[in-house]
């Protein structure tokens, strides 16, 4: 068995789904279980619909639901035989009537809870997995659909739910594993349900995570993440195009890159894969012959110090200053307790005798956090910052990496630097407006000469 996950752009249209069917067909002897994301930008659109509902913009949300139905119906009709279209229409009617009722209910209540956000955003994967199942049948692949909400069980932290692994693995073994040798199994990523059967989701980008949970649950030989780039690249292509493909990378390096913003992989993806020691591949659904990136358990020998550069944007720097800190103990504890109370995680920290600087990306509670910190210190905040993170297991064995970073970033104001907390990253904070220049300079410094075994 293998798990093949196709992201939003890989299933964005009938033509894209046809490409996916061909990719799956070529691997059908490996007993694929296919996990799909919502088509194109559907999740964003569903979230926009719930926002319009809560703001009482009735015409707006009705029009958006109508457009979304049109889009799914148009693309689905192209991958369903003529005789199947009446039943397709009936099914889409049912799904969209249900969605419309739900959205109207939210508009009436005037309240949008995390639980109802999950209910609404689940429609993307419910629709895409249904349409992909029909399409596979149409293209000659015997296929069966499994509603992920029957098998992926989570806690009830809606919009960011965590899987309950023992229950989930049991269901995957009982329900999915026996089907895979018989037919191609298609499941929606991202969606799950709580122990009491309420729809939940694994957080944005969570379909990658679904794929690795399924892979670990059924004991797959490989987990393939099919996306719109050739693999893990040496730099985020939205910031610096033209990076090199990393052929092999370790789980630890990939996890670090994902955590620090490499959107190509959801940060939790590697966890189930590591525990079950299943290799993860990142592949391009538009160029299926490119070998992609292989993520493996063991360290990958490499003559370059750095494997890739990740960026986390929209970061806020919080500076906390207090003379009471001088010689006092327990000060850091007091600071972190405040962040903890507001469930706000801190990414980077630097301390001096009388001040602490740290970065956060969730600013939902920043006002209240600052207020509490002001009870015992001076606080200033700076939005529009970015973390640029160099990742590579060789960083700690290579002398002079920090000095190369400083000289490459000559002319860019470095607000913070951190090395050593993690064994495989060196991070700097710069103003977001400087990010392109920073990444370009660092990329030139660390990737002009390449180890041909690792990069292409
Ligand atoms: P999918 O819809 O297939 O899940 P995503 O948009 O979530 O795709 O992730 C793929 C995107 O990740 C790429 O299009 C690219 O812009 C972005 N990305 C960020 N950092 C990297 C990186 N280091 N290597 C490759 N892609 C990256
Ligand atoms: N559709 C979800 C999202 O857009 C999950 C995913 O694509 O991985 O976040
Ligand atoms: Mg993704």
Question: How do the helices and strands line up, and which of them pair or pack?
Answer:
Elements: E1 2-6, H1 14-25, E2 32-36, H2 42-54, H3 58-77, H4 85-109, H5 114-138, E3 143-145, E4 153-154, H6 165-176, E5 184-188, E6 191-194, E7 199-201, H7 207-218, E8 222-227, E9 248-250, H8 251-259, H9 270-276, E10 280-284, E11 293-296, E12 308-321, H10 331-341, E13 346-351, E14 355-360, H11 366-374, E15 378-391, H12 401-408, E16 416-419, E17 425-431, H13 435-447
Parallel strand pairs: 1-2, 1-8, 2-5, 3-5, 4-6, 8-10, 9-11
Antiparallel strand pairs: 6-7, 10-11, 12-14, 12-15, 13-14, 15-17, 16-17
Helix pairs in contact: 2-3, 2-4, 2-5, 3-4, 4-5, 6-7, 7-9
A few lines on this structure:
This protein has 13 helices and 17 strands.
Total discrete domains: 2
What fold name goes in the CATH topology slot of the largest domain? Carbamate kinase
User: What is bound: which ligands?
Assistant: adenosine-5'-diphosphate, aspartic acid, magnesium ion
Structural Rg: 24 Å
Number of strands: 17
Largest sheet: 8 strands, mixed
- How much helix, percentage-wise, in residues? 25-40%
The coarse silhouette is globular
Name the CATH superfamily classification of the largest domain: Acetylglutamate kinase-like
Overall residue-averaged pLDDT value: 95
Going across the major beta sheet, what is the strand order?
A: 3-5-2-1-8-10-11-9
Structural class: alpha/beta
**Count of DSSP H/I helices:** 13
Question: Span between N and C termini?
Answer: 29 Å
**Helix and strand succession?**
EHEHHHHEEHEEEHEEHHEEEHEEHEHEEH
CATH class of the largest domain: Alpha Beta
CATH architecture of the largest domain: 3-Layer(aba) Sandwich
Detail the poorly predicted runs. Answer: none
How much β-strand is present in the residues? 15-25%
């Amino acid at each position: 068995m293998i798990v093949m996950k196709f992201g939003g752009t890989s299933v964005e249209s009938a033509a894209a789904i046809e490409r996916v069917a061909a990719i799956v067909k070529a691997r059908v002897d490996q007993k694929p279980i296919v996990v799909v994301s919502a088509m194109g930008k559907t999740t964003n659109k569903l979230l926009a619909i719930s926002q319009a509902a809560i703001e009482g913009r009735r015409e707006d949300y009705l029009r958006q639901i109508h457009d979304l139905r049109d889009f799914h119906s148009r693309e689905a009709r192209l991958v369903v035989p003529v005789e199947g279209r009446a039943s397709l229409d009936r099914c889409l009617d049912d799904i969209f009537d249900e969605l419309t009722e739900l959205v109207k209910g939210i508009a009436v209540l005037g309240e949008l809870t995390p639980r109802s956000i999950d209910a609404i955003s689940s429609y993307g994967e419910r629709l895409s997995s249904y349409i992909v199942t029909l399409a596979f049948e149409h293209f000659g692949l015997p296929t069966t659909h499994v509603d992920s909400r029957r098998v992926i069980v989570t806690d009830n932290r809606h919009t960011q739910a965590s899987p309950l692994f023992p229950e989930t693995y049991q269901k995957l073994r009982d329900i999915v594993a026996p089907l895979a040798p018989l037919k191609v199994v298609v499941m929606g990523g991202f969606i799950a349900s709580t122990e009491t059967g309420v729809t939940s989701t694994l957080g944005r980008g969570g379909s990658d995570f679904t794929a690795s949970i399924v892979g670990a649950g059924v004991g797959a030989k490989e987990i393939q993440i099919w996306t719109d780039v050739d693999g893990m690249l040496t730099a985020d292509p939205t910031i610096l195009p033209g990076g090199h493909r990393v052929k092999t990378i370790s789980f630890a390096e990939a996890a670090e890159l994902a955590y620090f913003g490499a959107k190509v992989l959801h940060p939790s993806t590697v966890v189930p894969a590591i525990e079950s020691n299943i290799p993860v591949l990142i592949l391009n659904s538009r160029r299926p012959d490119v070998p992609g990136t292989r993520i493996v358990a063991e360290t990958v020998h490499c003559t370059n110090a750095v494997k890739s550069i990740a960026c986390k944007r929209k970061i806020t720097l919080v500076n906390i200053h207090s003379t009471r800190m001088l010689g006092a103990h327990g000060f850091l504890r007091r600071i972190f307790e405040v962040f903890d109370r507001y469930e706000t995680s801190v990414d980077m920290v630097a301390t001096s005798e009388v001040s602490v600087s740290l970065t956060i990306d969730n600013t939902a509670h920043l006002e209240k956090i600052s207020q509490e910190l002001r009870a015992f210190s001076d606080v200033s905040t700076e939005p529009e910052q970015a973390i640029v993170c160099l990742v590579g297991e060789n960083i700690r064995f290579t002398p002079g990496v920090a000095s190369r970073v400083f000289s490459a970033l000559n002319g860019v104001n470095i607000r913070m630097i951190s090395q050593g907390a993690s064994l495989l990253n060196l991070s700097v904070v710069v103003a977001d407006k400087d990010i392109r220049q920073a990444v370009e300079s660092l990329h030139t410094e660390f990737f002009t000469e390449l180890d041909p075994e690792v990069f292409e």
